[in-house]
Structure formats: structure tokens, C-alpha cells
Amino acid sequence: MRDRARRLVRAAAVCGAGAARVLRTAIGVPDYERYAAHMRARHPGMRLLTRDEFVRERLEARYSRPGARCC
């Protein structure tokens, strides 16, 4: 029974983390940890942006497209 409870808690945590990631993406919050993990795994020779550089770049990309906003 304990093993089953642990598996359920672990599954709930994984689902919760996935839901949180989707929500952050939907509202436009940059995910530096995900970016850093991707860059280390897929592009090990490239320079990793600092957290501040990453956030600045993401916000600039989000708000620099004229047709991308509703207002």
C-alpha cells in the first residue's frame, strides 16, 4: 500500500510540474532552467546566457513583434 501511495504522489508531482510549465509558458514567463538544460544537452559548445540576459532576450522577443499583441 505504501508503495502505491508513493507512486501516486510521484505521479501527481510530475503532473503538477508539467501543468506549472504549461501555465508559465501560456502567460509568457521565461523558463531559464529549461533553457539552460536544453543548451547544455544540445549545444554544449555555445555560450550560455546569464539569467538576466535570457529574460531580457525573451521579453524583447515577445514585445518586439508588432502583430503579436492584442493592444
Provide a short characterization of the protein structure:
By secondary structure, the protein is mainly α. The chain has helices spanning about 1-25, 30-40, 50-65.
SSE arrangement:
Layout: H1 2-27, H2 32-42, H3 51-63
Please, could you describe this protein's structure?
With 71 residues, the protein is mainly α. It has two domains: 29 residues; 35 residues, no CATH class. It contains three helices and no strands.
Labels describing this entry:
mainly alpha, elongated
Indicate the radius of gyration in whole angstroms.
17 Å
Q: What is the approximate shape?
A: elongated
Largest sheet: none
Number of helices: 3
Sequence of secondary-structure elements: HHH
Give the helix/strand class: mainly alpha
How much helix is in the residues?
A: over 70%
Average predicted local confidence, pLDDT: 84
* Unreliable sequence segments: none
Ends distance: 54 Å
SS strand fraction: under 5%
